[in-house]
Amino acid sequence: MINDFCAHLGVARKGNENLTSIKLLEKFARTELDAGAPRTFGVLDPILLEITNLDACKDLKIKSPLFPVDPSKGS
């Protein structure tokens, strides 16, 4: 990831007094993690919620892939 980031910027040993946004480094980190990090979801601060029409969708099950780029790796 760091090598790709530096190659994109054209970093050399001397004469690199330019500034770049941290968002660009975050983009390369997201690209790297996209293929190898499974997706998970959690609610850290839940709120109380009352669903009035629950009978209509009570048996609804939703699957989400762990790896959106390659759904064959599991859900």
What can you see in these coordinates?
The protein has 75 residues and is mainly α. It has one domain (2-73). It contains two helices and no strands. The chain has helices spanning 2-9, 22-36. It is elongated, with a radius of gyration of 21 Å.
Describe the secondary structure blueprint for this structure.
Elements: H1 2-9, H2 22-36
% residues in beta strands: under 5%
Number of strands: 0
Termini gap? 26 Å
Rg of Cα set: 21 Å
- Helix-and-strand structural type: mainly alpha
Helix content: 25-40%
Mean pLDDT: 83
Could you list the spans in which at least 5 consecutive residues all have pLDDT below 50?
none
When the domains are counted, the total is: 1
Number of separate helices: 2
SSE string: HH
Oligomer: single chain
Main sheet? none
- Tertiary shape: elongated
